[in-house]
Amino acid sequence: MGSFRKVLNIRTELEGDIVDLTEELTAAVRESLFKEGLACVFVGHSTAALFTIENEEGLRRDMKEALQRLFPKEMDYDHHRRWGDGNGHSHIRSAFLGTSLTIPFHDGVPDLGTWQQVVLMELDNRGRDRKVIFQIIGDQ
Known about the structure:
Strand content: 35-45%
Oligomer: single chain
Distance between the termini: 8 Å
Number of strands: 8
CATH architecture: Sandwich
Number of domains: 1
CATH class: Mainly Beta
Helix content: 25-40%
Mean pLDDT: 96
CATH superfamily: YjbQ-like
Low-confidence stretches: none
Strand order of the largest sheet: 1-8-3-5-6
Number of helices: 4
């Protein structure tokens, strides 16, 4: 059993950006030289999220609209009143969606479904620099 770590720096442009990380995950698993194991994908930010989705335009739009219905940007959040940064909704959305995923892999390939991609979603009210960590444990 061994471990491998790769850090990816991403710049998002605006709130709601969805960045497909599937190719980067697959490359990190390949670089690890492990055949079997688990890949943890983690974003160390409280206004971004990671999840799997069929990464197509309609679902990207649906996701943004669903988040707006569930956690409206225009609500008066206590966080807004305390910090004045207008991103209380961003923190709540991140907490519900999550900031990490664990994906098994076999024969050096992530075990993702045919229509399943790993994505990062920018939830803050502006673009940001994001650090995504791939931490992989496995056997050769």
